[in-house]
Task: inverse folding
């Protein structure tokens, strides 16, 4: 047939309708309909790791609880509440204080079938009511058994109908950086969230979060609401209590080591509070300069800068300038560790103390005191702090001599001198140099001559009621 004379529009009309339809792309690929994975084989070690995480969550999740609290906070009152000037307006009656109720969320974990639960002190502090929700959605009212703000640990209890699943407490002393860490909790109210990371560091302190700090650092995601929840190892054992985060950074969270918690929790359950051992000394770190000046092989231990009157340390014969190397059989690496070891020692326990004094190892024995009595004790009023070059000194004023002090007073400090860099200030009283007592300017002059020969000096300085050692080098 000859189609050349037929208009193109008529040709389109006679074509089958199906030929004009646009071909549709299937929504799912053929492989998707057949449920075939793109990757046919996965290494067995990866599958084993994945299964290990799932096993931990299945085993521990029943022991993890969500905690919600309601607390009553007093509002700031207007000025007239405190001013008698406004009494006439209220007929001699002051308006009642105003309060607001605050809700908060946290986490915790059950430690025995009777219903004892570990959480953070800040989760339940000042709470009027505590609600605990279990993994099976059952809810119970919780009661605070005891709390310890100095470690931010609290124990609460619920009365359940049946025996409860309990988490297994591990050994945080065996932790190594790089090991897996798994956090379970209630971040932002998102029930039973699981995050995985590693142990980033151990022994973190000087964070300003608690009085006694020995944190585990982890990059397992921790957020508000995770507080009080468990940090787990790959075996499902609790290695820490999730406590804090660095708000300005990601992947920086902190947990209280479970070994510290064990001792605190045992006392809280038994008597509702915590009693700590007390030594009665002011201590400071042993720097490289101090170690060299004291002829110690390397920086280690804790340097005693002051001793409290009537303290266990004074009774045992400890002196300023002693470096404590071991306490109760435990090697002391730094001043932070000494603080923790002493606090963990039962009150009244007789312990062996090893110190470094005058280039020799000296062994002493003492009975620890009660830290509750520390506030009533004061430093002995004999010697004070240390300072060095780039400063001027004068004789002590007569009004200072009557206080029982001896030494020379710092009258001026050069802005860019070694003393200023070390932290010495005008008004500080230098009481000893290189462990030799300074009574006047003549003693100080002789000490400076010896310091020039040695190239360095260790000063003991008195500032207020505190005694501080300073190690300085001659430039």
Result:
């Amino acid at each position: 047939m000859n189609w050349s004379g037929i208009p193109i529009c008529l040709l389109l009309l006679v074509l089958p309708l199906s030929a004009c339809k646009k071909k549709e792309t299937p929504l799912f690929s053929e492989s998707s309909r057949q449920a075939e994975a793109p990757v046919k084989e996965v290494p067995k070690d990866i599958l084993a790791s994945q299964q290990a995480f799932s096993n931990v969550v299945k085993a521990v999740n029943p022991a993890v609880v969500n905690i919600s609290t309601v607390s009553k906070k007093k509002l700031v009152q207007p000025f007239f509440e405190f001013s008698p000037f406004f009494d006439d307006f209220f007929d001699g009656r002051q308006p009642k204080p105003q309060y607001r109720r605050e809700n908060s969320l946290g986490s915790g974990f059950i430690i025995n079938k009777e219903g004892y639960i570990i959480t953070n002190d800040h989760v339940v502090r000042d709470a009027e009511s505590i609600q605990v929700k279990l993994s099976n959605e059952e809810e119970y009212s919780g009661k605070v058994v005891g709390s310890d703000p100095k470690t931010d640990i609290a124990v609460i209890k619920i009365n359940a109908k049946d025996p409860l699943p309990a988490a297994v407490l591990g050994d945080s002393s065996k932790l190594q950086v790089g090991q897996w860490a798994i956090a379970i909790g209630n971040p932002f109210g998102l029930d039973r969230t699981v995050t995985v990371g590693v142990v980033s560091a151990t022994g973190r302190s000087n964070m300003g979060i608690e009085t006694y700090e020995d944190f585990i650092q982890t990059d397992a995601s921790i957020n508000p609401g995770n507080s009080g929840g468990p940090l787990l190892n790959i075996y499902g054992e609790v290695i820490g209590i999730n406590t804090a985060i660095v708000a300005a950074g990601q992947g920086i969270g902190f947990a209280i080591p479970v070994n510290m918690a064990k001792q605190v929790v045992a006392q809280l359950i038994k008597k509702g509070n915590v009693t700590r051992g007390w030594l009665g000394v002011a201590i400071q770190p042993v720097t490289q300069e101090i170690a060299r000046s004291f002829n110690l092989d390397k920086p280690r231990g804790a340097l005693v800068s002051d001793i409290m009157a009537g303290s266990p340390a004074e009774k045992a014969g400890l002196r300023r300038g002693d470096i404590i190397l071991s306490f109760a059989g435990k090697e002391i690496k730094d001043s932070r560790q000494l603080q923790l070891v002493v606090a963990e020692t039962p009150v009244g326990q007789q312990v062996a103390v090893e110190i470094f004094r005058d280039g020799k190892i000296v062994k002493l024995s003492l009975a620890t005191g009660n830290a509750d009595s520390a506030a009533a004790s004061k430093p002995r009023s004999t010697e004070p702090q240390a300072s060095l070059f780039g400063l001027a000194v004068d004789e002590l004023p007569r009004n200072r001599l009557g206080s029982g002090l001896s030494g020379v007073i710092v009258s001026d400090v050069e802005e860019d001198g070694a003393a200023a860099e070390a932290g010495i200030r005008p008004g500080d009283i230098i009481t000893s140099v290189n462990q030799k007592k300074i009574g006047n300017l003549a003693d100080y002059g002789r000490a400076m001559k010896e310091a020039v020969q040695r190239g360095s000096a260790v000063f003991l300085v008195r500032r207020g009621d505190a005694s501080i050692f300073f190690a300085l080098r001659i430039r």
